Amino acid sequence: MTHFEVNEHFRWAQNGGRQPGRVKVWFRRRFFDEEPVMFVPEDGFGYNPLSIGDRLTERSQKGHVYEVVRKLGYGDSSSTWLVRSDGEPRFLALKVMIVNASLRNFDNEDHELRSTFVVTKKNPKHPGYAHCLPMRDFTVCTSYHGLHMALAFDVMASGVYSLQKTLPYKVFTPRNARRIVKQVLLALQYMHEECGLVHTDLRLSNIMVPVTASDTRINKYLAQNPAKTYKPRVDLKTKKLITTVKSQPLPHFGLNPSLNNLSIKLCDYGKAIPIQKIDHRNQDQCSHILPILRAPEIILGHPWSTPVDIWSVGFLVFKLLTDNVLYPLHALITADRYKLAHMVNYMGAFPQRFLAKCTMRNSYFDPEGNPTFPNINISPLKEHVTFILGAKGVSTKEARSVAAFMERCLALDPAARPSATELLRHEWLCDI
């Protein structure tokens, strides 16, 4: 398949042949080892094809030069690299944006750079600041694709999502789940009340564990576990060989087996939106939210704000304790009406005052406010959560407390959802 054919097939897939999220995975597996470094900005990409040993000679905002020593990971709009600095701290994580994302930030179409600056500078004395990831430095680097915005942060190990996969039965104990949730709420309290930002992308992979090891220990680990690359591939356009560096996150240095010293940071402000810039009529502002995490106000076209993050916290709690999602599989891959049906069965009918403000009301409800989506015969949320947690060995008292906490987070009307500050006072978190 030629470069043109790949691009044309990709566009076809984006325009209805395949779901956008699935086409990214399909293309990466078939044509690329990891991020599609061969695709150009005109295709909506433009990754910086960095290699181990590369030096970013453009002076950063703080006057530093960085040397690439390892690849930590990648996402839809960036790749993240462990770099060695000529200043302090010696090691940093450099998030290098694709050309398209860089230009959108330079043109103020995206908010990542501005949101990160706000999180970094607003109020370092706030308790939630310790659970956010402030920016250490900023630079712009170049590749044959163009300009790349690059943000430097403290080094993180793999996220809570990866950590959970290593645990017995892939679940956190209730106490460790409470520890994570409380720290997430402190971060949200800071973002919502001090920074005026809605995160909008609260998922386990965006909750990271800091690396607390010394430079000496990191150097020793790197020497014993050198960076790896994939077999070179031919660029379909330039016919040149491209060698992709393998993602190798650092381990959780110093984390006790009991996780009683677990500390987290809420990261990735690429989708964070200033509260005053929210336009609920603009679907592009919330199109990135995972379907499973979309609050009812997003689906129904109701004005939205910080409560969408609180909704995500409710799902986060269940995932941490069960490694499952609240909706069955078919609800994840079908229409929003099935998600709404589950919401009604879990939480009861939507308040009419809420529906009156929903622009998509007539798509899911008749003129009398009765749902036109099918009824699903499942237990109310409290019974469902209590039963599932009980089956996993959680005590009845603990399970009921968890269910009560989730009920507060998943109130159908966003006006009825508590703030992060109010949730921090909930009894389920009182002994953490």
TrEMBL record:
SMART domains (UniProt xref): S_TKc
Domain of life according to the entry: Eukaryota
Span of domain Protein kinase: 66-429
One GO molecular-function entry: protein serine/threonine kinase activity
Binding locations of ATP: K95
UniProt keyword list: ATP-binding, Kinase, Nucleotide-binding, Serine/threonine-protein kinase, Transferase
Annotated protein name in UniProt: Kinase-like protein
Taxonomic placement: Eukaryota, Fungi, Dikarya, Basidiomycota, Agaricomycotina
